[in-house]
Every structure is written in structure tokens, then in C-alpha cells.
Design goal:
The protein has about 650 residues and is α+β, with helices and mostly antiparallel strands.
Length: about 650
């Protein structure tokens, strides 16, 4: 009995130790799975920050100005956290158990390579630049230098070069690079074969062209290095590397889960084997106990039977001896042992079931997260495709509209007086004309009727700018020509009164119920060089006269051309001014003085404009134009142009 009890206890102890060992191993593998899952989630956040950097910071002027990004700071903190998690994971002893050391080292190396590619992308983006920074900024400077050459180079070809440049930056297609370089070659040939340009000046122009072309081609090189349209570049390589790392993580997590499941199966097998052994030992003990109890009883039965057959004369004592005390002790020990075994088995079953539920829950959560990530990725991909299609449609529509507006610009330029015509009427003068958009609502008008010795010139500001303003400029331009040629009026006030009638008639502004409330402000002058008399009439726009360092302001009437106001006197008044040699006359629209800029983002204003005009009186008129242009451009800085700009200057 004692040997049987000892055997039973030994088997139970071995089963208990084996179960504890497998449970500990399973816990270690679970910690590896959790560590991998944490690193995977951090890596996904890291990849998301890299994508956010490419989506937002590449068009953020502040980043290129300061070379600092909050997104990059967050990404670096996340990189350090990932490396810390890797160190913790590699310190676990169970890594070697599931043969994951080499695979995790591979993931770590691929993440370092991915970070290296990302650093190269940032480096190339900084060199490529954006707007006024980097290579794009250098290219813009050379482009502005080319445009400032004026009539020494065909400005239409310069505009086409800028168009090819912008088309490439927007569309990222090599065809625009070929168009650009072909046109550059044609422009150089034209300059080289133009005999009217001195050799020294020709070298300067060719150097400016070459600098612009070199800067553009460097920009193209940086774009190709990064990857045009998402192919064959660093950004494409970064995407492939991220996809590869994700596959590594998925594979390693799958292998770890399989190892965990294998240990779970082994643990169940140990528990089952222990139960079977306990059951067999129980059957054996039952048989042994039954035999020990029944043998003395049988012996006693035969003894009683022999005694009866002998007529109670002879009693043969039972050959088998037994003790009820031993049987009770055996029974109690067996009950106690069976209870302890059952308790241990139930304990391990509860632990196994509890951990199995946790594993299944974690597995379900991982599968759910994976499904959500895949679904989110698919939604983002569909949204990306929709945005690309919408972007392409918008670009095509914008291109058609822009082409139409550019053709309208050619028409508007054709009706405006050319430089040689202006110089023939007013030799010592300038016209600074800078539309806000492609076409303009401001226009200048100069004419001299055949029957008159007077030269008429005007600065006109139509309501609105862009296309609406351009339509109004056609109405005003045709109205002035009609009044001079058909009505033969020579008095500025009379011309404005008749122009008021013509505009109202054209726009059908007969009463306050008219839907068209548009009109124009104008400063109109007639110059009689023989008599040295200047006549002026204005609608809101003033005239500045500078004589002997003093500036005089002649204000026009405070109502516009057009815009019907019932019951109000809308007759314009004429001003006659006797001129002296050296006088300077300026008429302008409000676009110059209303431009926002400067250190505080305020308007330029009339006071500052007056001071500017007084400060440049010692210069020739063409030099004054350059100073006026550079001053407003420096004032504007990176701000957008708020209105069309027109300034006309005439020196007597």
C-alpha cells in the first residue's frame, strides 16, 4: 500500500512540474508576441509621421526657412522609443526559444535603413526647396533677372519658359523639361545672331539665360531623385521599404503565435496524460484494495463452512490475515490523495482555460486591428484615386480657362498703346503697368486727334480686376476713342461727362433699378505743349504736380464714371494748369497705394507714395519707373498683390 501511494504521489509531482514549466514557457512567448505588437504599432505611427511630413512640410515655407519641423521632432522621439522597445524585446530569454533573434534583427536593420532613406528624402527636399528657398528659389531669382532684361529679349518667349517651368513643377512630366530646354536653345540662338546687341551686353544676357536653364535642370534632377509621380525615386523606395517591414512584422507575429499555440497544445497533452495515469493508477489501487479485503473474507467463509460441515467440531482459522484499521487508513489516504490530485488538475485546467481565453481575445483584437488597418488603407487608397481624378479634372479645366484668359490678355495688350507710340507722344515719360491677374481692370489711354495740338492721356481704374475688370476696360477704352474721334471733344471735363453717358448707355444704367452697378475711376489730362497748358478732370483719381521740390495735389470730382445716382449732380469740372519747364506730372490708380506689405502688413498709402515721388525727382523718368517698381515689390514681399497697379509719369 505504501509503495502504491508513493508511486501515485511521484506521478502527480512530475505532472505538476511539467505543467508549470510549459506554462512559464507559454508566458514568455506571450511576452514576445506583445513586445512585437507594441513595436509594430509604434512603427505604423512612425510611418504615418513620415507620410505627414511628405504631405504637409514639403509645401510649408516655414520649414524651408527654419529647417525645423514639429513632425520630424515627433518622429525622432518615436524612433528612440522603438529602439528602446527593441532592446527590451531582445533581452527576453524566450526570443531564442522561438528562433526569432535573427528575424527581429532583420526588422531592426530594415527600420534603420528606412530611417536612412527618410533622412535622404529630407536632405533632397531641402536642396530642392520651395518657392523662394533652395534650388526653386534660386531658379526664380534667375527667372526674374531674365524678365528684367526688358526688350533685349523676347518677353513672350520668357513667359513660355516660365509656363513650361510651372507646368513641370505642377504635373511632374518630362515633356515639359524637353519643351523648356528646346525653347532655351532657340532663345540663345536668337540672342547670339542678333547683331543689334553689343557683344559685352550679349554675354551678360547669355549668362543670365544659362544660369536660369542650369537652375531649372538642377531642380529637375532633384525632382527625379525624389521620384517623379511617385516612381523610381527615394519616395518610392521609402514606400517599398515600409511595405517590406510590415510584411516582416506580420510574418514574425504569425510565427510567434504559432509557437504560442504549439506550447498550448503541449500543455494540454501533459494535462491529459497526467489524468490518464491517475485514472489507471486509481483502477489498479481499486483492484488491489478489493483483493485485500475480499481474500480474508473468502478465507473466513471457507473456515466457517468447514466448521459447519464438521458439525461445529473443528474450526480452521482463516489463512489470510487482515486489519480493518489498515483498510481505513488506506481508504483515508486514497480519498485525501484523490482530492489533492483533483484539486491540482482543476487548478491547472482553470489556469489553462483563463490563459487560452486571453490569447484568443488578443488574437481576435490583433485580427480586428489588422482588418481595420487594411480597410482604412483601402479607403485611403480609394480617396487618393478620387482626389487624383478630381485634381486632373480641375487642372484640365483650369488650363482651358487659363488659355482663354491668356488669349484675352493678348487682345487687351493689342489695344493698349505700345511703348514706341507712347514715346512719340510723350518722349520724357513712363508707364508702370502691373495687372493683378492675367488680364487687368486698369488701363492707360493716350491719343492725339488729327485736328488738335493737344495730347490726351489717362489712367483708368475699372471696378473689379481680372476678367470682369477687363470687360469694363474695353467699354472705357472704346468710349474714349469714340468721344475723341466722333464727337471731337477736346475739354477733359466734357470728355468725362460724355464718357459717363456712354458707359451708362452701354451698361443700361438708366435708373437705380439697373442690376449693373459697375463703373470706373479716371484721371484724364490734355497737354498743349505749344501753350504749356495742362487741363485735367478726374473721377475720384487725383493728379500730382511736382515743381521745384514741392508736390501739389489736384483732386478730381468725388463720383465715378457710370453707377447711376438719381437726383445727384454728376457733371465733371475742368482744371487748367500753367506748366513750367521741369514740372513732373503723375496720374495713377489706387492699386499702388492700397498694396499691403511692409514689416507690419499695412497699406502703402498716399503719404509714403508722395515721399517716394519727391525723393526720385533728380532721376530720369525710366529710372523713376524702376525705383517705383522695385519699391512696391519690396514692400509687398511675400504678400499677394491686392489690385491692378498703374502709374503714369510725364516730365515737361
Amino acid at each position: 500500500m505504501f509503495l502504491c501511494f508513493l508511486l501515485f504521489s511521484s506521478i502527480s509531482l512530475v505532472a505538476l512540474i511539467a505543467s508549470a514549466w510549459f506554462y512559464s514557457k507559454k508566458e514568455n512567448v506571450s511576452s514576445v508576441v506583445k513586445g512585437l505588437d507594441d513595436i509594430y504599432i509604434l512603427s505604423l505611427k512612425d510611418f504615418k509621421l513620415q507620410q505627414d511630413f511628405l504631405n504637409y512640410e514639403t509645401t510649408n515655407p516655414y520649414y524651408f526657412k527654419t529647417n525645423h519641423s514639429v513632425i520630424v521632432d515627433k518622429q525622432r522621439v518615436l524612433e528612440r522609443e522603438i529602439q528602446t522597445r527593441f532592446s527590451i524585446l531582445m533581452s527576453l530569454q524566450s526570443i531564442a526559444t522561438i528562433n526569432s533573434t535573427r528575424a527581429i534583427d532583420s526588422i531592426k536593420i530594415e527600420l534603420k535603413r528606412c530611417q536612412g532613406i527618410f533622412e535622404k528624402v529630407k536632405e533632397q527636399l531641402v536642396k530642392r526647396g520651395y518657392q523662394d528657398f533652395g534650388m526653386e528659389g534660386e531658379m526664380r531669382l534667375h527667372a526674374h533677372a531674365l524678365m528684367n532684361l526688358g526688350e533685349e529679349i523676347d518677353q513672350v518667349q520668357v513667359l513660355m519658359l516660365r509656363r513650361h517651368e510651372k507646368d513641370f513643377i505642377i504635373r511632374k512630366e518630362n515633356i515639359y523639361v524637353d519643351k523648356f530646354n528646346l525653347l532655351i536653345h532657340d532663345v540663345r540662338d536668337e540672342i547670339e545672331h542678333r547683331a543689334s546687341i553689343p557683344l559685352s551686353r550679349k554675354k551678360v544676357i547669355l549668362a543670365t539665360i544659362d544660369n536660369y536653364a542650369a537652375a531649372f535642370n538642377k531642380l529637375v534632377f532633384f525632382e527625379k531623385t525624389l521620384g517623379i509621380r511617385g516612381q523610381n525615386g527615394l519616395i518610392f523606395l521609402l514606400s517599398r521599404k515600409i511595405y517590406k517591414i510590415q510584411n516582416y512584422f506580420e510574418t514574425q507575429k504569425f510565427l510567434a503565435l504559432r509557437a504560442e499555440e504549439s506550447i498550448y497544445i503541449e500543455l494540454n497533452a501533459i494535462a491529459t496524460m497526467a489524468m490518464v495515469l491517475v485514472l489507471l493508477l486509481t483502477l489498479f489501487l481499486s483492484y488491489f484494495v478489493a483483493s485485500a479485503i475480499s481474500k480474508p473474507l473468502v478465507s473466513l467463509t471457507y473456515s466457517i463452512k468447514g466448521y459447519v460441515n464438521s458439525n461445529f467440531a473443528y474450526f480452521l482459522p482463516p489463512s489470510a490475515k487482515s486489519s480493518n484499521y489498515e483498510i481505513e487508513i488506506l481508504k483515508e489516504n486514497f480519498v485525501k490523495m484523490s482530492g489533492e490530485i483533483t484539486s491540482h488538475i482543476n487548478y491547472f485546467k482553470e489556469k489553462v482555460e483563463e490563459r487560452t481565453k486571453e490569447i484568443r481575445f488578443q488574437k481576435d483584437e490583433i485580427v480586428k486591428q489588422k482588418s481595420e488597418i487594411i480597410e482604412q488603407r483601402d479607403r485611403l487608397e480609394i480617396q487618393k484615386q478620387i482626389l487624383q481624378i478630381q485634381k486632373q479634372l480641375v487642372l484640365e479645366k483650369n488650363k482651358g480657362m487659363e488659355d482663354s484668359i491668356r488669349y484675352a490678355m493678348r487682345i487687351q495688350k493689342a489695344i493698349l498703346p505700345q511703348v514706341n507710340a507712347i514715346k512719340s507722344f510723350l518722349p520724357d515719360s513712363f508707364v508702370y503697368y502691373q495687372p493683378k491677374d492675367i488680364v487687368s481692370g486698369d488701363f492707360y489711354w493716350i491719343d492725339q486727334p488729327k485736328s488738335s495740338s493737344k495730347i490726351f492721356f489717362a489712367a483708368v481704374d475699372c471696378t473689379g480686376h481680372g476678367v470682369p475688370g477687363a470687360f469694363m476696360s474695353i467699354v472705357g477704352y472704346n468710349g474714349l476713342n469714340k468721344i475723341i474721334q466722333e464727337y471731337r471733344l477736346c475739354n477733359p471735363a466734357a470728355i468725362l461727362n460724355q464718357l459717363n453717358i456712354e458707359v451708362r448707355k452701354t451698361l443700361r444704367q438708366e435708373n437705380d433699378s439697373s442690376e449693373v452697378k459697375d463703373g470706373m475711376d479716371i484721371a484724364l489730362c490734355s497737354l498743349d505743349r505749344g501753350a504749356n497748358i495742362l487741363e485735367y478732370a478726374g473721377a475720384n483719381n487725383p493728379l500730382y504736380l511736382i515743381r521745384n521740390g514741392q508736390l501739389q495735389v489736384f483732386n478730381g470730382d468725388k463720383f465715378p464714371i457710370g453707377m447711376y445716382k438719381e437726383g445727384k449732380n454728376t457733371l465733371f469740372h475742368n482744371r487748367a494748369i500753367e506748366l513750367e519747364k521741369g514740372d513732373a506730372i503723375y496720374v495713377f490708380t489706387d492699386g499702388y497705394i492700397d498694396q499691403f506689405g511692409g514689416p507690419d502688413g499695412k497699406k502703402f498709402k498716399q503719404r509714403q507714395f508722395k515721399e517716394l515721388l519727391l525723393s526720385i525727382q533728380h532721376l530720369e523718368m525710366e529710372d523713376q519707373k524702376i525705383i517705383i517698381q522695385e519699391t512696391i515689390e519690396n514692400w509687398r514681399g511675400h504678400s499677394f498683390q491686392v489690385d491692378d497697379v498703374l502709374v503714369i509719369g510725364v516730365k515737361i
